[in-house]
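Question (not urgent): is this output format expected?
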Amino acid sequence: MGFKLENTIQQETGEMSNPAGWEGLLKKEITLFGTFFNNRKKEDFYSELAVLLKAGIHLREGLQLLSDNQKKKRPKEFYAAMVEDFDAGHSFYRVLKSRKEFTEYEYYSVQMGEESGNLGKIVQELGAFYTRKNAQRRQLLNALTYPIIIFGTAILVVIFMLRYVVPMFDDIFRQNGVQLPWITNWIIGVSHGVKTYGWSVLLGILGFLVFRKAIFNNENVQRKRDALLLRLPFVGNFIRLVHLAQFTQAIALLTASKVPMLNSIQMAKRMIRFHPLRDALAKVEEKILKGFSLNESIQGHVVFDNKMASLLKVAEETNQTEFIFQKLNQQYTQEVEQKSKLLSTLMEPLIIVVIGLFVGVILVSMYLPMFKLSSVLG
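Got this back:
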């Protein structure tokens, strides 16, 4: 039987006695993956610490070795401060909990590991978790990087043609009094728009890139963005699978740490940044509190598929929840890999075709009046 996480938090002393402050801290934790101690650093931290613990080195000595191996000042001071807190008598769970770089998901997993005597295994699983999470991120970036470069280069070519080539033809047509087709007039109008408002649009794009973090920190903006992404053909399903893979990773690790399912759902909900999934998990949590089983709770949500509901029903009947979530994670990870390759393969020719159409329309619109011009000159 799971226990309500908020009740446990309120029973904590010190900084944990203020629920509002706790919620604010959680929000900071969720948004601070871009700090110097990012997911890649966490992968190294947990993986290296797991190796040291497996070799029989004491936790304190392991943290000290990690601190000594740091070359840069900031990471070295970060690890050294952790060692000092550990020397002051704090548990590893408390050391992580006192730092905003670590999430609730991490330090509660570590707490379960310390209490059960399986800290080495939990740290190893955390390292594997961030390894898979970073691999998924790299797959997504690899799938989008080359198409984005092609798209950006093609956009620059089109802008160059509209800004410099089209005005040259426009001058020739005006000087000779050639009557222009509608498509040529339309392209010339676009060219004038680029010439008049081009710098304003460019400054707007640069401003958006500079202030995008502040813009997307707004929850309403995030919700609208995530809802729009989820509706996009193919891309929406791909993004959904990426977050489901991360969700099943988290639940598999938490269940391995003997965390009750209700608390696992609560922790995963707080660490996930994709609002459709977070909202679905909030409703799942409510149904579990009302006495529904997990497979009954996830049914009817767009984010979850029938495969997950069917397998979870089997998991609950056979008491194999951890194993089923591991299998689900493997399946979703494989689907993400396949779709990322397919996405990259499809986007490249699609972008080339679309940009080719734009360039072709510009060239045709400029050459159509040339036939009338030749008759006028003749």
